[in-house]
Amino acid sequence: MFDLQDLAYLSRAGFTLNEEEKTVLKSSMEIKLVEEKLKDMALWGKILGIQKDYYIAQGWQGDDMFQRKYYYSLDMVNWLQLANVSYNELVLINTIHGRFYGDPAYEYPLGKEKGLQRATSYLLHKRLAGVVALISHESEIVPRGAYFRDASHNLKVNPSFLGLDCADLPDLGSYFHFRPGFNVNTKSFLERANRFDLSIDVLEPISKDEPRGAWAVQTEDGAKVAVLRSVLWPGYSFFHSLKPAKWGGFYFGTGQRNVSLGYML
């Protein structure tokens, strides 16, 4: 999730949009939000292609924060919804490591796969949807305390969240994966006894990610701003500032997983 007004924070990670991009994207997403009857819509990222780049946006219709729709645009004006991808399709998509081409009709040759009688190919829009899903699942993060579960166990934005404490900014345990499926019962007794709040510790901390070293964090502006980068998915960056209390994440890269991460650490 990312607000175009906070672009200056992510420029610290080497990402930027020019004035034309910001103006056109803001206008076209406002139109798409009304057309699709969405509750909210935000820019997710930009995947760099060989011929053209893909702008990715995400939208919500209901109160379920994880029931999101994803859209892509090649011209910043027209947005097309990305298809849903099954688990088996994600496994297949994860075997493609080349750059995105930039042509929605391009098919990736996969060669002979186990259980297949002939060579197969995969449409780009399916791979695009799969890569967006993988990056969101493995890299999208939020600060601890930014969300809570209400009495009905629904995830909600925490209106009383005023930002992390300064000492917690560089601590990976202060940032959570923004994804469903976390089971609080997997926490040990010691973890529950040490800095645990049942109302806000409802997501999985990135400090548990394997292999260790999958995240790089640095503080700036006199330790008032933290910038985190995913080493697993180079191009995903996240910021959290104390004054004003703001945070957001964005992907700006080629859509390629760092398959050498295990050898780098």
Core attributes:
single chain, 265 residues, alpha+beta, 8-stranded mixed sheet, two-stranded antiparallel sheet, 6 helices
Give a verbal description of the structure:
The strands form 4 sheets. An 8-stranded mixed β-sheet has the order 4-3-2-1-14-13-12-11, sandwiched between helices. Strands 5-6 form a two-stranded antiparallel sheet. Strands 7-10 form a two-stranded antiparallel sheet. Helices cover 20% and strands 26% of the residues. It has helices at 7-10, 19-35, 87-93, 124-139, 189-193, 261-264; strands spanning 40-47, 54-60, 68-73, 80-81, 107-111, 120-123, 141-143, 147-149, 155-157, 175-177, 215-220, 225-230, 236-241, 246-253. The chain is built from 6 helices and 14 strands. By secondary structure, the protein is of the alpha+beta class.
